[in-house]
Each structure stands twice: as structure tokens, then as C-alpha cells.
Amino acid sequence: MKNFIKLFVILLVVACEQEITTGLPESEPLVAFDAWLYHSATPQTIDIYTTNTYFDSSEPVGIGGATVSITNVDDPAESYSFVEGANGQYTWTPATPTETFGIIGGVYSLIINIDGTTYESLTDLSPVPSIDSIYWRFDEEDAFTDDSYFANFWARDLEGKGDTYWIKSWKNGELLNKPDEINIAYDAAFSEDGDADGLFFIQPIRELINPFEFDDQDVLINPFEPGDSIFVELNSISQDAFFFLQQVQIQTAREGGFGELFAVPLANIQSNIFSDNPNEKVVGFFNISATSSLGKLFTEDDIRIIEE
Amino acid sequence: MKIGTSLVGVISIPTVLTQKLRTNLKRYITLLTVLACLFSNAQEKFTINGYVKDAANGEALIGATVLVKEINGGNITNVYGFYSITVPPGDYTIEYRYIGFLAQTQQITLSSNQRIDVELAEEGVQLAEVVVTAEPEDENVSSVEMSVSKMDIKTINKIPSFLGEVDVIKSIQLLPGVTSVGEGASGFNVRGGSVGQNLVLLDEAPVYNSSHMLGFFSVFNPDAVKDVKLYKGGIPARFGGRLSSVLDIRMKEGNNKKYEVNGGIGTIFSRLAIEGPIKKEKASFIIAGRRSYIDILARPFTNAFDNGAGLYFYDLTTKANYNISDKDRIYLSGYFGRDVFNFDDRQGINWGSKTATFRWNHLFNDRIFSNLTFYLSDYDYELAFGENDRDKFEWTSNITTYDIKPELTYFINTKNELTFGGEALLYRFAPADALGFSDGEIVEFNLPHKRAAEYGLYVGNQQTVSEKLTLQYGARLSGFTYLGPGSFYTFNDTIPGLRRSAVDVQRADKWEPIESYWNLEPRFSAKYQLTPTSSVKASFNRTAQYIHLVSNTTASNPLDIWTPSTNNIKPQTGIQWAAGYFRNFRDNDYEFSVEAYYKRSQNQIDYIDGAELFINELIEGDVLAGDGRAYGMEIFLKKNEGRFNGWLSYTLGRTELKIDGINFLDDLQNREGNWYPARYDQLHNFKVAGFYEINNRISLSANFTYLTGTPTTFPTHRYQIEYLTIPENSANTRNNLRIPDYHRLDLSLTILGKAINKRGKVRKNRDTLVITVYNVYNRKNPFSIYFSQGDDRFAMDEAVVTRANQVSILGAFVPSVTYNFKF
């Protein structure tokens, strides 16, 4: 789709856009939770704050005085309590260097209490397959690209339908964190109906770990040159988190220009955290990921020829 | 209502349908006989009938007036140019009139049935042998039709359009009550209806996507179009299946006197049309084609197309007819067109429509005209992605329709014209047939194909009650059956606006009815003549729509799919009331009308937040239904004659939706919806079209459009998960603000080639040069405003800046030159 729109733009060269200043409708702020945690032996932090207005990029105001705990639903003895820090940050710190947050296969409940209101959520901690290898695919120069090398990671989706993943990547230590770089998978493909259980992640997912950036002439900049490094992280996420990120991608990765013809209207994204006050809406998400990763320095030996 | 289970089986449904049709036809014939007795009286009467045609090329004239002066009554020719008038024996003066043509008068002594076929000559093309008078038409005032916009191809040809191309859909958007959400949007909106609520007919076959190049051009080749009529209200009983409007496009039959070649060389595409007699005065044909060639023109300047990339569209429109006898005539027409966007030899998208229509006109007797139509219409698109054969993704989507439509018109007397008929449609939906390869491993995921049948039976009468009062009334009984084979689901109930999950799945066999719906759709229009130059009119209609255009994007686009009503998705229904005042001035030189309308509709579909509309077998769980309302006023002033002519059109209108789960504000528990403006709600819609003939060869035309900005949803707040910054509308509103207003001026200059060559002889071929400037004052008209964090990557310790961007699809003035020829 991206290329299709690009071609259209190149040939018509009439679509244009400009940044504008506009007022926003007045509305009450909401309580927000960022409870995106990892199955790891490092401190885990939950942020609780009130939302900023849309154009306000300052640090949001944290909410203090909350009690925060996460408990294994099947084993109440496995419980993690979070200690309040500065500006609405609540942190769990491993007691020993090897103590890991969560057990794979566990179902966890998050319970937060703020001034007598209780907020609850559930998630499961799923296993993650390992990344077998990373290769680069050579793509010959054409109208839209110069000679380019695309990194591909090779991993196979776990057996059984409904595994969901978030793949993050770093080029030369820099995280690819743009909205259109969100790379998620349902089994080995994009969606449930993809029916790709147990396969290698499909090609677009394998290749979305590359930075896709364009120069002034709208030509793709070669993502990798020998000497560059890549680091890929494969994270298991809950199915709810998959749908959440899918929505985040739709709402934040806005193509602009001609892409607006295919854009959906702005919509709110359903949180998996609920207040016991039925008249209160909150935003945010609770998820615990297990992670596998692989890094590689790109040399000419890592080019894999794919037969056409 | 469920059709009896006895109907299950492969053959039984069609059999039952034809049987139904047959019994119903029988019933109608009985009714007819009764009616015939009712309307006949003791006195013996005779019928004058025949066809009214264009003298230059033998094309039937649609809507020509046939007036019997002595009784001040008559008939209007139907879409095939046929008329029939039954009067007592005597001497009569019959006048034949058609706008832009010289009227003809015939004196007859009627003592038996008479067939009078008439050919009218265009104004300025004098024919010596007939008595002619030019008299402007008063149809605006005298016809019972209201909320109808007609445009003949001559007017359409004068209107400058994008890149100098004459365009049917762009032209009707200059009329009151018709708008679009912006450049590049497919389709059009009528009186607060969505794009999918318009029935767009090309020679009676519905066209599911009327756009080329997204929404920049329409698929109707002006060289092959004869007549365009848009019903915005007061829709006659013979049309059904869509809620809002009917755009009835009739193709030319082809010159049956001599060969003619029309063509044009434009900036973006070229056209060529050939028409002529197959057998003089008996059979003729037209074949018209277009192809865009920006890719061919660009090839020397860019290597973008070397690897198989392409960007073009083409279409072919063709028709043939054969006059078998005085009583029988057959027509065969077809359209085939495709848009192709390939970005290399294995990746791209293409889409297109196909229609084929067979029609048979038969005169049962002097007063019963019949037409039998069979058509097939198909729309499909294909997407292909992937770098190589081991890793690729291919996806096709398609809708196919077959329809059989018999219709009879009984010209009872000068006061009554009865039309009745039926239709039976069969739909096949293939929402997604997809094939994926991952490193050589195949993944196939086809969404089940769906089948459905739709039927309609209707009767309508146009009755001249008195000299002043004319009525048009009728009813349509429509039905729809969602058919097997396939799985059908039962969904759980949840808070409106959240995804519903399937709790039960059942299997239906081939042709097994899963769910049926029936609707009675009364239709009524009345005209009361106040004075010879003024009238008031009122109309009411109920309409039902059984198939739905699924579109959640800002504008409708070629990837939208059609889906049937199912056990979970109910048919849309709507009513409309309209009333108006019509007045002509200065010998019909000026036409004026003001109309008010009020519409209510049920089961308007919308989608949950985060709806998955592509490749989703459980799409019904993501669909919401609610109510719609639209009301407004349309003012139209038109100058018909003279060197300076044109029109002003203004619509003041509101279009709102109320759907549980959307715009629920602080009602978090029940999420009951509140009214919100639809995406295509535009309060003010003002258009001017002006034409000025500087001299016999040079004419200037201009059009101006002003539209209130369309509503859109703004975020109020933002929050962060990991490093992702997410917008939130904390008040749960929909379409809470508007984008800036839209306005644009286009100009065009038409220079006619010399009619006489250097040696003083009349040139056989004629040509015109059309110079057009679109968006003269270079306004960056907004299409949408979107919110994002911008294209740059943020450092992880840096604050993410979010901002608003305004997009213009055509943010520049666009000049163009087109050369048209005819010989």
C-alpha cells in the first residue's frame, strides 16, 4: 500500500500538506496507566499519571499515593509489589540478581488502588520462540530504491494458534520507534485470519525490522551497509495487547498526503484496565512480555540470495 | 420472515422464483384487465403511438413531449423514445417537442390506430419539409417529477472538469443536493446519503464503483452517454435497492444513418468512439474507448516503468441495437473498464467493473409497451505484494450480480399511464480470496463466498386527475434472502461499540435460505399547477437497501467491499418527504425551484472503534447499526436560453447519525449514542455554472463551488505506552470539529474549429480545442486534518511532539488542453 500511494504521489505531485495550529475541544483529562512489563531480572516500572492535552508534550503530572501490586492468579503467593517513586512511578525491584519478574505460562492480575478507587486488569505471560538467524537480502536498484540491503530475521512461530508478538529492532543501537515501525504478528502473519500457525514469520514481518526512510527524491535510503549492526527483540504479548498495538498503529502511523484517502477516522483505543467506578474511563495498558533477542554486525557474508 | 424450508435445494429456488414471477404476472394481467375495464368507457377510442427520434442520427429522444392540442393532454416519451396516446376519433393537431430541438406539428384525422414515428431536428438545423416552431419547454413546472435533476450530454460537455475531461459524475455535483467529501473521493453524496446508497445504473446495470483513478474521473465515457437523470427523491416504484438516489445513465444507441467518429486527445487520456448503422435505419452500434497514457508519456523521462510498473486506466463502452420489426427491438450494451497501479511486475493493485445488458422492447399492442432486461454486473479488485515468488501475498475481492427485469407500461388513456413489473437478482460476494507465501510455504485464506437473492414487484400509475393536478403513485414490494452455502453466526450481546464475538455457528446448505426480509415501499408524487408558469409539488417515498457498502475510511475508495444483509446485518430502510415550489419566468427562459426535504432512515451501518473490515470472517461482529436523519432546502435558478446561460444552486442541509456505541459522551455504561454530523454533512453547498458564447466559435464557461468543511474527529488528550504516544478523545465524541471550508473556481475556453475550409466549402470534420484551468486561484483546499507525531524518529529521552496536519489532495491549480474531433 505504501508503495502504491508513493507511485501515485510521484506521478501526480499535487497532494500537499502543511502543519496547522488548531484549537482542541475542551474535555476532562483521564487517568493513564503505562504497565508494559517484561519477564526479566531487571526493575519493572508502572507509570500512573493524568493525560496531557494532545499538543502538550511536557512531562505529564504523576499520580502519587497509589498502591500497586501484581499477583499470579493461580498462585497468590507469587506476588509483586511496586514501590512509589518520583512523579507517579511505581517500581518492583528484584530481591536477588536472578529473581525474574513473572513465570512463563502464568496469568497475572494487576490491582491498583487510588483514593478508594480500584483499577484492575489481567494478562497472561506467554512463551516466545528464539530467533534462529539474521540475514540480509540484496535488492537491486530500481525506480524506487538504490541498491539496498534488507535485514531479515528468521524465527518460527510457536506451534498452536493464537500466539502474538511484538518485534522491536535497533540499528546501530538506535531503537526504531516511529509509529510506522510497530511490527506485530499474529502467529507468523498479520492477523488471525492469516492462518499462519507455526510458520516462519512472513516476509513483510521479517523485513519490517529495517528503517524505511526516504531521501528528498522519495528514493528509499539503503537500510544497511556493511559495518552496520542490528539488534532484534522478539516479545510475546497477550492477544489483547496485539489488538491494542494494531489500533495504535492505525491511529498513530498516519501516512498523510494521498494516504488520507485510505485513512480511518480517529478512534479511541480500548484499555484492558478497568475502574470499579463504572462511570470512569481510563487509558493505558497492562502487558507482560517474554523476550528473545539476537544481534548481528552486517558483513558481506550475511547476504542471502533468494531465488526469484 | 423465513421462506419455507421446502425451498431448500439446488433447483428449487430458481424454479420457485420463476413460478412466483409467473403467478404474479398472471395476477397482474388480471389486475390489468380489471383496470382496463375500469378506465375504458363505451366510446370507441384509437391509439396514436410511435417513437420520437433525433433526425441527425436516429437516436431515441428520452422525455420528449407529445401534445394533443385539442385535449391539451398527451404523453412523454419513455427511455426508449416510445409514446402512446389513446383518444376518441376526430381531427387532431399533435405537437412533438424536445428541448433544444425544433418542435413539429402534425395534423391527423384519427379513425383507426396510427403509428407515427417522428424525427426532430436540432435548433439551427432547419429542415425545409416540415413545419417547425421553436418553443421553450416548461417541464420544470408542468412535470409531476420533483427532486429530479436531468442533464443532457450537451450541457455536460460544456462544463469544465478536472484536466479538461468532461465528466458525468463531476457535472451532477454542480446540482443542488449533490456533493462529495473532496477530491479523490470515489462516488458522490445525495441529500445526506452515503456513497453506497446511490443506485448508479448504466443501461440498467448497476455500477458498483463509478470512479477511475480513485475519484478523479468517472467510468462513464461521455462519447457513449446520451442522457443522465438523477432521482434525489420522489423515486418511482420501478427503482429499488438503494436508499438515497438513483442515477440513471442511458447510453447512445449509435447513429443509424451514417458513420461517425468522435474522439479527443487530452492531457491525461484519449478517447475514440465509432458509431454507425449496421443496417441502415434498422440496426446500429457504438463502440467507445478511453485509455490514460501518463505512463506512456512519462516513459522517456523516468525509469519508473521499466520494471513492469504501470499506472493507467482504460474502459470500453459498447452498444448495438436491432430493430427487428415495428413491434420488437433488441439492445445489447456493455461496459468493461479497469484501473491499474503496478509498482513493479509483481506488486500492485487493479480494479474494475464489467456490465452487460440485454434488452428486448416489445409492443404487445398499441398501448402496451414492454421491456425485458437481463444484465450482469461485476466489480472486483486484486492486490499483490511480495518481493519474490517465495514470499508474496495475493488477494482478490469480487461482487457479481445477475438480474432479470420484466416491465410493462400500459398507456391506458391520456390520463393514466400504468407501469408494472418485477425483478429477481442473484448476488455472489467473494469478499477476500487470498493466497500468501512465506519462504515458499503456502497460506491460503479465503473468506467464504456469500450468496443472496433480491426480488422486487412493483406497480405505479401516473394519473392526470385534472388540468391542474397530476399524481404519480405506486408501491414496490421488495424482498431479500441471504442464502447458503456457508456458515452463519450468532453473536453475543455486549456493550454497544465493542467487538461482538460469535457464540454459535451453523451451516447452511447450497441455496438454503438463512434469513429473509420483506419491505413494502410506497411511492407518491403530486403536482398542482398554480398558474401556467408555476406549480407546487410534493412527494413521499420509502426505500429499502439490502446490500451495504462497507467503508470506514475518510472517503470511499476502490477497496471498499459490498456485503449482504444477513441474520445479523439488517437491511437499511428510509423514508423521505419533499415539497417544492416551481416557477418559470420569461417564456421559460428562467427556471426556478425551491424544495425542502426531510429524511429518516434505520439500520445505518457504522463500525466499532478498531473495526477489522478486511479479511474478517466475523465482520458482522464489528458492525453497528443506528438511525439517520437528514433535512434541508435546495434552491435552483437556471437560465436556459441566450448567449449567456447557466445556473445557481444552493443547498442548506444537515445530515446526522445516531448509533449506539458512537458519540456516547459520558454514558460509559450503556454507550447510548447521541446524534452526530455524518462525515458528509455540509451545511452550505453553493454552486454556480455559467456559460458565455463570445461568438459562434468561442465560448467561455466557469464554475464555482463552495462547501462547508466536513466534520472530523479531533483528539483531546494523549498518553504514552512504552515509547508510543497515543491520541485520545476523552469526551467520546465523533466528528466534533470541522475542517476549513472548500471553494474552487474552474474556467474553460472552448474554441470551435472553422466550419468552412479555405476553399469555402463546408468541412466534413469538426473539431474543438478546450483549454481548462482547474482551481484557478490555486487554493489548497483541505481534504482532511490528521494528528500525528511526525516523520522523525525521537531520541528515547526526548519529548514526543504531536501536531496537526492539513492535507490537500489537489493543492494546486491544474491547467490542461484537450483536442476533440468529430468526422
Commentary on this structure:
The complex is a heterodimer of chains A (308) and B (823). Chain A folds into two domains: 31-125, Immunoglobulin-like (Sandwich), CATH 2.60.40; 128-255 and 291-304. In chain A, 10% of the residues lie in helices and 37% in strands. Chain A has helices spanning 2-12, 203-207, 239-252; strands at 16-20, 31-38, 44-50, 52-53, 67-72, 75-84, 89-92, 107-114, 117-124, 133-139, 148-154, 164-171, 174-175, 183-186, 229-237, 274-275, 282-289, 291-297, 303-304. Chain A has a nine-stranded mixed sheet. In chain A, β6 (75-84) and β7 form a beta hairpin. Chain A is globular, with a radius of gyration of 22 Å. By secondary structure, chain B is mainly beta. Chain B folds into two domains: 5-137, Carboxypeptidase-like, regulatory domain (Immunoglobulin-like, Sandwich), CATH 2.60.40; 250-768 and 811-822, Maltoporin, Chain A (Beta Barrel). Chain B has five helices and 52 strands. Chain B has a 22-stranded antiparallel barrel. In chain B, strands 3-2-5-6-9 form a five-stranded antiparallel sheet, with no helix packed on it. At the A-B interface, α1, β1, β2, β4 and β13 of A face β25, β26, β28, β45 and β46 of B.
Descriptors:
heterodimer; A: 308 residues; mainly beta; nine-stranded mixed beta sheet; five-stranded antiparallel beta sheet; disordered N terminus; B: 823 residues; Immunoglobulin-like; 22-stranded antiparallel beta barrel
Name of the CATH superfamily of the largest domain in chain B: TonB-dependent receptor, beta-barrel domain
Distance between the termini of chain B: 59 Å
Gyration radius of chain B (Cα, Å) is 28 Å
Number of helices of chain B: 5
Number of strands of chain A: 19
- The helix content of chain A is under 10%
Q: What is the general shape of chain A?
A: globular
N- to C-terminal distance of chain A: 22 Å
Number of strands of chain B: 52
Biggest interface reads: A-B, 97 and 107 residues
- Overall tally of domains of chain A: 2
